[in-house]
Specification:
The protein has 98 residues and is of the alpha+beta class. Helices cover 44% and strands 19% of the residues. Strand 2 and strand 3 form a beta hairpin.
Amino acid sequence: MPNDTTPIPNAVLDRVLPTLALTEVPVLLYLFRRAFATQRPTVAVSLLQMQRRTGLAHTTLLRSLRSLDQRGLITRQRRLGPNGHRIASAYTLTGAWR
């Protein structure tokens, strides 16, 4: 597979994406892209970076992430750095579409 592509399972394309709100689609696809690039189901990404990549406003992004989590498609783990401050959350693709 060429390096500039991201494989998305057919079940996601056929069964999941049609059920999502339009604002949830770029979020889920971005997480797939990051997960494929790192070859891990869990990726750490800041909200600001995700906003820039998806083009969504902060509140819209948060609403979309919450909805994807409630649907069981992703899980979000909030993380703290050594100084106790928040750092980029970790998002895991759950594989619920299988």
